[in-house]
Amino acid sequence: MKLEKELIETYLLPLAQNDAAALGFQDDAALFQPEPGTELVISKDLLLEGVHFLSCDTPENIGFKALAVNVSDMNAKAACPRGFFLGLAFPKAPDPSWMEGFCASLSVLSKAFYCPLLGGDITHSKSGLAISVTIFGTVEAGKMVKRSTANVGDRIFVSGTLGDAALGLKLMQDSNLQQRWQLDHEETKYLIHRYCHPIPRGGFNPLIKEHASAAIDVSDGLISDLENLCRASNKSADVQLNQVPLSSALEKAIKVEPALFAHALGWGDDYEIMATIPADQAAAFKQECMLNGVPVTEIGTITAGTQPPQYFNEKGEKQQMLASTFEHF
Amino acid sequence: MKLEKELIETYLLPLAQNDAAALGFQDDAALFQPEPGTELVISKDLLLEGVHFLSCDTPENIGFKALAVNVSDMNAKAACPRGFFLGLAFPKAPDPSWMEGFCASLSVLSKAFYCPLLGGDITHSKSGLAISVTIFGTVEAGKMVKRSTANVGDRIFVSGTLGDAALGLKLMQDSNLQQRWQLDHEETKYLIHRYCHPIPRGGFNPLIKEHASAAIDVSDGLISDLENLCRASNKSADVQLNQVPLSSALEKAIKVEPALFAHALGWGDDYEIMATIPADQAAAFKQECMLNGVPVTEIGTITAGTQPPQYFNEKGEKQQMLASTFEHF
């Protein structure tokens, strides 16, 4: 108990940013007063050593990613993150330097999105580190952007570039790949950073809320998540593969090894946002995103039917695209 | 992914009880509309195999306890549980019979307290089972009962009986103890059941909300949790040990082995509620509890000062009482 209290007071309490809802971690629970007319949007992730991160990952990367992937869920729903709860299970008492690194990167994101730590617990694990994050946000009643409400004819937009993290992970796992893919040091660093430090899209929520008929965060990859959105909406989609936004580093690697293209779109860990926009608002949406510094690209259209989304190359030929995401069992 | 979807649809979706907030588990997040004038009370627990439960524990016991300890937190705050989020990490695909048992007992509690499952995730663990539960409830604004608001002269009440679970755990771990403590089969079963199936106090919340100046759930044992409440309130307490409510099974074992008394109060896992009641409301509180079928017992008084609570025997002699709760590291 003593060590747990010490860890909480030294490292975690500052993450509460003195938010009243945390009650100074002095009670059994946190207490949050939602503004009248708002709804709560709540999401949860469980991250385990050896599965979602490696024991050799830096505490900074682990801490950053644990919160980032949850903030990304809020962004995809046009919800404003309001606080998070953190469960940590350690196999042994963590080094102060580990805690410092973990909390420092958490703190950066937590402050950037004003998403204070409101509670949680620290406990013992018989094996690896386990991290559980529950995030909650608020949105004006009725304004949450769902997955299930895309309409035929809506244009499909994605933020940023896709597939970088898939290659970043591979580059981390095999140091020979940099040379094989003819990437320079900066490009390699960029791709790895995209895997380790997925920066949730800021400033995007008002635009999504105003224009999007549906949205999802691209965490399992374009192929999987577009299929998820279409299935929830009872629709299908046509996607132009040559319009999918790629970073210059990724394009360079694909030139050397074309099969990487399919892998990059099938893998995931992008944490970009995919949104469907009614055709008559597409131009306005695009322009407002530009003015707000959020790069978005139109990649296709929602269609009728319940078949999986269809992918076409620049010649208009249908291409089979498969999700390569991790099968957990 | 396929198995995860199957597990979610077969076993977890029914736990949502068709609650609209769950969105049929079809979205990135849950969506909850709090009633105007309510506040949210949120609590979180992370439970790990080998630490919080044993691999030989039945899935029914594990499922029941995971939710029960969280509902108990809501009860201690006079909050009405409104939903929970569940993260499950399995070392291998769980047997259908395991999932059925786990979900069946979860379902009993979830229905009893109308606390639907609103979301969560299923993932892989490299080692033991990990369970993460986040619960949230609502309470009229300003009405949450805190730990930190006890006043000098308030009477200390506890619900039910204390210490049963401490002996129940010992009886589970060593089958010789039943004979040594001269317990019959029913008494043994009762004590073990108190450990495995802590039933959160129902019907108590309105009484706590109306009368209590402060409250806490007794999860770490009387000694620890009274100290926690007193520390948060900047107060001390006097407790009459002979007034602490004990079950007849526990009394019987203590007669054989008097040291069990201190162990029982120091251990925890009671999941009863401790509340401080202003002296002039103590009689009314007691009577209302009786009329509502909630057994409560007055065990002491909040005093001035910041020393740890003091314990007295029936002769008025001070007794040293120590928490024997688990040190996680």
Report on this model:
Two copies of one chain form a homodimer. With about 325 residues, the first copy, chain A, is of the alpha+beta class. Chain A has two domains: about 1-140, 60s Ribosomal Protein L30, Chain: A; about 155-320, Alpha-Beta Complex (Phosphoribosyl-aminoimidazole Synthetase, Chain A, domain 2), CATH 3.90.650.10. Chain A has eleven helices and twelve strands. Chain A is globular. The two termini of chain A are about 35 Å apart. At the A-B interface, helix 1, strand 1, strand 2, helix 2 and strand 3 of A face helix 1, strand 1, strand 2, helix 2 and strand 3 of B. Strand 1 (about 30) of chain A pairs antiparallel with strand 2 (about 40-50) of chain B.
Q: Concise description?
A:
2 copies of one chain form a homodimer. Chain A is an alpha+beta fold and 329 residues long.
Top keywords for this entry?
about 325 residues; alpha+beta; 60s Ribosomal Protein L30, Chain: A; seven-stranded mixed beta sheet; four-stranded mixed beta sheet; about 25% strand
